[in-house]
Amino acid sequence: MKNIETERLILREWTLKDVPDQVEGLGNFETAKNLTVPFPYTEENSVAYITKHLKNTPASYAFAVQLKGTNKVIGGTSLDFRDGQYNGGIWLNEAYTGKGYGTEVWIARAKFAFEVLKEKEIVCGYFEFNNRSKHMQEKIGHKTVGKQTNFCPALNKEVAEVLTTLKKEDFYAAMQSPKLKPVYDKIKV
Ligand SMILES: CC(C)(COP(=O)(O)OP(=O)(O)OC[C@H]1O[C@@H](n2cnc3c(N)ncnc32)[C@H](O)[C@@H]1OP(=O)(O)O)[C@@H](O)C(=O)NCCC(=O)NCCS
What mean pLDDT is predicted for residues 58-72? Predict the structure, then answer.
């Protein structure tokens, strides 16, 4: 399928060449403690995930996030069709966090969901202590809709997860902000 392009990133299908970069990113406790991925995240885990997600389908979109001008995969994001809606998440290699890449990916993923998949609403969640994800989600228009518990392998315990929804109209309202509009405008889905 066609890649998604942002100002600084390419979101593309995974290949088995990405195994070392995925293990580097998800093998880090500081990243994995926010996710439900296996921990420690091994080469076998990565090969299994990528083998299952080599080709995107309407049931499951998985994107490797590659830094433009390099072959470096600095993260991943997904949209999985579950219970009638797209769910999924995002992670970035810790060394690349705090530079706006997460926001760029999160806006690109939502733009793809609304403008290519023609969804009206997508859903997500974040662990209660994950204030950075909370901030990123709220910034682009996500609203809290509930709470559940989920098992976190890195923490080896059940944690409280806040459930969120992103409605198309709330996303477009958020994209009017002077900080986010230029990011949105540069994204090609
Ligand atoms: C969450 C994640 C994707 C965000 O990506 P990022 O590139 O670090 O985020 P950005 O730089 O685009 O933006 C982070 C924003 O959060 C803010 N922020 C950072 N730490 C914060 C904190 N502890 N509390 C609240 N806001 C915080 C930043 O100031 C920035 O806000 P701004 O854009 O309004 O200036 C990334 O940090 C990550 O992969 N973390 C580990 C895995 C994870 O948590 N995934 C999400 C699971 S729900």
Answer: 97
